[in-house]
């Protein structure tokens, strides 16, 4: 049982090797010798357990021989050494109980391989496939490591709100939350009166818990928030979701250098946990999804991350001779193609880009002495591009107020945020890691829709 890593299975008392396994049938093969082989998977690992079901079973003809992919079963029997290649043990059944049938005419996950795109249509069943099962186990491990890393470094987990009135990123990509009957209002043609709305004002799904996390960092010292965030950005790309999970640490008395170090230590710890604890799943990704993935992740863990300023990155991009779809010059935002050139071709590993122009970054980033750039940092990794975005925050009251005015933000909406600079302000920093991008990076999965249980993207919110 250990060998097959069937965590749901229990060893029964009495005869040492008598076990009960519960799971789903992957395949059945009837042997000429009057018995059948069943491959059972219980979701705890990639490994299937081979079951030998003898013809003597009471329900052999009536049930066992009718089992097909997807049926759920409880099997008791004894573990024995397997003569077959590729497995150490097999289970010799003395009872096979069928819990649920799966009509082979309509069960979509037949033996034939389906594309990931096709599997998205069955997001409620696709985790029963090898790849999606492995992805979700890795996703779980990353989530666990996130909590462990921050707790071990003295960060408290805070729960920031999902419904908010402020647009942290200032990009206007927020989903509105309302109880108003907008349809009726639109028909009547009148202006929308938000004093009639549930919260008496316009509210939205959060794009980031950062601003609220900052309030906690300036009281508890080191905190992180980890939860779902929402962006109504109309980008149908392989790395954007409308609903994704973000972990956002925020630390008082941290400057940009501390922040960069934290991000690097954090990523390395998460990646090495995945290699250690999800070895079998990572072997699978290494062989089936992206060749050489394990060696790549190992080298990321071993080598220090490279650093480069935005200004230097623009010089590199301008002189590299590559033809990009989007022209690049100082002051423009980097597109995915630029980020990938820098991290994949120029550096060949993770790259921390710093000191972006103030004009392309949100109001809360700390303005540098040159008055043109801010203390921002993005972590880029091969295959994905930006995986982390963060900064040192503007802790000076007047500078913050000037920057908010320049970005036409209403100070009354952010009065509580501004208060932090009025009462015992301190330098502080933080960043946000997109959980799905981290999962994409370690697994090598090409599309972000395949590393989140139920993807929400423009025009698609099935399930
Ligand atoms: O760079 P972003 O927008 O930064 C923030 O939201 C800051 N408030 C974070 C902070 O400093 N506390 O987003 C952070 C990360 C990105 O680097 C990316 O990994 C992920 O969140 N991300 C997305 N992931 C999936 N789909 C999207 N639409 C994403 N937008 C951002
Ligand atoms: Mg960003």
UniProtKB/TrEMBL annotation:
- What Gene Ontology terms for biological process does this UniProt record contain? asparaginyl-tRNA aminoacylation
Compartments annotated for it: namely: Cytoplasm
UniProt keywords, alphabetically: Aminoacyl-tRNA synthetase, ATP-binding, Cytoplasm, Ligase, Nucleotide-binding, Protein biosynthesis
Name where it mostly resides.
Answer: cytoplasm
Please name the GO terms that the record assigns under molecular function.
asparagine-tRNA ligase activity; ATP binding; nucleic acid binding
First-level EC class = ligase
CDD domains with a match to the protein in the record: AsxRS_core, EcAsnRS_like_N
The record's annotation in InterPro entries points to: Aa-tRNA-synt_II, aa-tRNA-synth_II, aa-tRNA-synth_II/BPL/LPL, Asn-tRNA-ligase, Asp/Asn-tRNA-synth_IIb, NA-bd_OB-fold, NA-bd_OB_tRNA
- Report the GO terms under cellular component: cytoplasm
A Pfam family hit: tRNA_anti-codon
Report the EC number(s), separated by commas if there are several.
6.1.1.22
Q: Where is the Aminoacyl-transfer RNA synthetases class-II family profile domain?
A: 136-453
**Annotated catalysed reactions:** tRNA(Asn) + L-asparagine + ATP = L-asparaginyl-tRNA(Asn) + AMP + diphosphate + H(+)
Tell me if Nucleotide-binding is a UniProt keyword of this record.
yes
Q: Is ATP-binding one of the keywords?
A: yes
Subunit organization = Homodimer.
**Family, similarity comment:** Belongs to the class-II aminoacyl-tRNA synthetase family.
Name of this chain's protein: Asparagine--tRNA ligase
Organism of this sequence: Roseiconus nitratireducens
């Amino acid at each position: 049982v250990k060998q097959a890593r069937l965590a749901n299975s229990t060893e029964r008392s009495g005869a040492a090797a008598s076990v009960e396994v519960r799971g789903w049938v992957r395949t059945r093969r009837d042997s000429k010798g009057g018995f059948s082989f069943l491959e059972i998977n219980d979701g705890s690992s990639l490994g299937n357990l081979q079951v030998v079901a003898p013809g003597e079973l009471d329900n052999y003809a009536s049930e066992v021989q009718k089992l097909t992919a997807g049926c759920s079963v409880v099997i008791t029997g004894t573990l024995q050494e397997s003569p077959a290649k590729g497995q150490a043990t097999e289970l010799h059944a003395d009872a096979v109980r069928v819990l649920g049938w799966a009509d082979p005419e309509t069960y979509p996950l037949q033996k034939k391989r389906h594309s990931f795109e096709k599997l998205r249509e069955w997001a409620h069943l696709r985790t029963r496939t090898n790849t999606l099962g492995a992805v979700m186990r890795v996703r779980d491990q990353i989530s666990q490591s996130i909590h462990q890393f921050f707790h071990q470094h003295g960060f408290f987990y805070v729960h920031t709100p999902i419904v908010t009135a402020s647009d942290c990123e200032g990009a206007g990509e927020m989903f509105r939350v309302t109880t108003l009957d907008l349809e009726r209002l639109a028909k009547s043609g009148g202006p929308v009166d938000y004093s009639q709305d549930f919260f008496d004002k316009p509210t939205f799904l959060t794009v980031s818990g950062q601003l609220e996390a900052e309030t906690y960092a300036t009281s508890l010292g080191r905190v992180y928030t980890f939860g779902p965030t929402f962006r109504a950005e109309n980008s149908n790309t392989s790395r954007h979701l409308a609903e994704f999970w973000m972990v956002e640490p925020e630390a008082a008395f941290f400057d940009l250098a501390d922040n960069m170090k934290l991000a690097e230590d954090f990523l390395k710890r998460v990646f090495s946990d995945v290699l250690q604890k999800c070895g079998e799943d990572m072997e699978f990704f290494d062989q089936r999804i992206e060749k050489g993935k394990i060696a790549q992740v190992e080298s990321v863990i071993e080598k220090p991350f490279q650093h480069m300023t935005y200004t230097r990155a623009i010089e590199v991009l301008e002189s590299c001779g590559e033809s990009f779809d989007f022209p690049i010059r100082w002051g423009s935002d980097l597109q995915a193609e630029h980020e990938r050139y820098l991290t994949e071709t120029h550096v060949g590993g993770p790259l921390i880009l710093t000191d972006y122009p103030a004009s392309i970054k949100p109001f809360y980033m700390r303005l540098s002495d040159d008055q043109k750039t801010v203390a921002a940092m993005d972590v880029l990794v091969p295959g994905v591009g930006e995986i982390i975005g963060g900064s040192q925050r503007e802790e000076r009251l007047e500078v913050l107020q000037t920057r908010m005015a320049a970005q036409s933000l209403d100070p009354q909406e952010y009065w509580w945020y501004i208060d932090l600079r009025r009462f015992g302000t301190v330098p502080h920093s933080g960043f946000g890691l997109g959980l799905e991008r981290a999962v994409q990076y370690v697994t090598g999965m090409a599309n972000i829709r395949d590393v989140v249980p139920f993807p929400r993207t423009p025009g698609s919110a099935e399930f």
